[in-house]
């Protein structure tokens, strides 16, 4: 029983994580199609004890598909997403292709489920739902519960982003470079054209005329859409750091009304999908390694922002698994809401 599924980009890092999350959450489905590019078609993969052959993604791949999870890059989503919707499929798209499109819900289930109100499988009507960018999801999982309690006027985010955000090849190259550097060999730099191991650099996305890179502007624009608030001031600096698969983010918040750190801690303790790691005595706070392969976003360093009057400002530090909550888990949670 359950819907028929398709996973587009199934051989990629997020595609593989879709399968892990579907399994972990015992997602009900009657059939599943493993779709990828021509290059990957024909591969065998084992899922839930059954053998599947990866099929090439084509225009008619979605005839009998109720829900399709996409993570195969923006151009694939642009070409095949609308075709799937036309054939009655509900597409959950992890690419940035449609995130800012009017009428396309941009959803973090714990944050703004109302944005996809009324979209359900079995109504014969297709739809397209966008998964936000990983750094946006991880940031808003913590910032939104606070924002709901006391409106955020301004948010300043500094991110420390893992290799996984640039794909499985970047993760492999970080590992390879680390060995090479330790062995005194010249590092192989195919992905970022610079040494990554024992280094960090401004996010590899394109720099726009305003001096921000695309990753930073995603955080700005997606926050405004998800919070349905065009006035909130957001600025971001996104950095790529030599960490495998979990992002870390420093978040500074300025509120319309005072919000003291104890109240903030209580709110975050109660918020879904968060775990508080905030032990000043032992200097124990969130780390990327500890959240890797886990569902929850970890929050710590909760403290009053001493640069602001009274309790109008707060600083926090979050870590979240980029492949899981940053992409695959969020998308599967969206799919669960379609049932
Ligand atoms: C990154 N957010 O980390 C991107 C991946 N979706 O580069």
UniProtKB/TrEMBL annotation:
Q: Which Gene3D superfamilies match?
A: Dihydrodipicolinate Reductase, domain 2, NAD(P)-binding Rossmann-like Domain
SUPFAM superfamilies with a match to the protein in the record: Glyceraldehyde-3-phosphate dehydrogenase-like, C-terminal domain, NAD(P)-binding Rossmann-fold domains
What keywords are annotated for this sequence in UniProt? Amino-acid biosynthesis, Diaminopimelate biosynthesis, Lysine biosynthesis, Methionine biosynthesis, NADP, Oxidoreductase, Threonine biosynthesis
Give the residues annotated as active site.
134 (acyl-thioester intermediate), 247 (proton acceptor)
Q: Which residues cross the membrane?
A: none
Which SMART domains does this entry report, sorted A to Z?
Semialdhyde_dh
Pathway(s) served: Amino-acid biosynthesis; L-threonine biosynthesis; L-threonine from L-aspartate: step 2/5; Amino-acid biosynthesis; L-methionine biosynthesis via de novo pathway; L-homoserine from L-aspartate: step 2/3
Instruction: Give a GO molecular function annotation for the protein.
Output: aspartate-semialdehyde dehydrogenase activity
User: Boundaries of each Semialdehyde dehydrogenase NAD-binding domain copy?
Assistant: 4-119
| EC class name | oxidoreductase
Q: Please cite one Gene Ontology biological process associated with this protein.
A: isoleucine biosynthetic process
Q: What EC number is given for this enzyme?
A: 1.2.1.11
Catalytic reaction annotation: L-aspartate 4-semialdehyde + phosphate + NADP(+) = 4-phospho-L-aspartate + NADPH + H(+)
Q: Which InterPro entries match?
A: Asp_semialdehyde_DH (IPR012080), Asp_semialdehyde_DH_beta (IPR005986), NAD(P)-bd_dom_sf (IPR036291), Semialdehyde_DH_NAD-bd (IPR000534), Semialdhyde_DH_dimer_dom (IPR012280)
* Record text on subunit structure and interactions: Homodimer.
Q: Which family does it belong to?
A: Belongs to the aspartate-semialdehyde dehydrogenase family.
Recorded protein name is aspartate-semialdehyde dehydrogenase
- Source organism of the structure: Prunus persica (Peach)
């Amino acid at each position: 029983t359950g819907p028929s599924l398709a996973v587009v980009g199934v051989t990629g890092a997020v595609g593989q994580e879709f399968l892990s999350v579907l399994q972990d959450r015992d997602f009900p489905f009657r059939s599943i199609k493993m779709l990828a590019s021509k290059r990957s078609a024909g591969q065998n993969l084992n899922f839930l004890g059954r053998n599947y052959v990866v099929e090439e993604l084509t225009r008619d791949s979605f005839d009998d598909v109720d829900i399709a999870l996409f993570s195969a890059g923006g151009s694939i989503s642009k070409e095949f997403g609308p075709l799937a919707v036309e054939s009655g499929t509900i597409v959950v798209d992890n690419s940035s292709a449609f995130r800012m499109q009017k009428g396309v819900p941009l959803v973090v289930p714990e944050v703004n489920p109302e944005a996809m109100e009324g979209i359900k499988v079995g109504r014969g009507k297709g739809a397209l739902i966008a998964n936000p960018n990983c750094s946006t999801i991880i940031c808003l999982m913590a910032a939104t519960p606070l924002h709901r309690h006391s409106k955020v006027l301004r948010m300043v985010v500094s991110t420390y982003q893992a290799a996984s955000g640039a794909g499985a090849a970047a993760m492999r190259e970080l590992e390879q470079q680390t060995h090479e550097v330790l062995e005194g060999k010249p590092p192989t730099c195919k992905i970022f054209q610079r040494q990554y191991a024992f280094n960090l650099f401004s996010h590899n996305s394109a720099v726009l005329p305003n001096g921000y890179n695309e990753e930073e502007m995603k955080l700005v624009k997606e926050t405004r859409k998800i919070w349905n608030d065009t006035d909130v001031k957001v600025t971001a600096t996104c950095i790529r750091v030599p960490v495998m698969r979990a992002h870390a983010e420093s978040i500074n918040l300025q509120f319309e009304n005072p919000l003291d750190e104890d109240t903030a801690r209580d709110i975050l303790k109660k918020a879904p999908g968060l775990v508080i790691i905030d032990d000043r005595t032992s200097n124990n706070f969130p780390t990327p390694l500890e959240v890797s392969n886990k569902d929850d976003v970890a929050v710590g360093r909760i403290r009053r922002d001493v640069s602001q009057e009274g309790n109008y400002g707060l600083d926090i530090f979050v870590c979240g698994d980029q492949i899981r909550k940053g992409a695959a888990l969020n998308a599967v949670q969206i799919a669960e809401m379609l049932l």
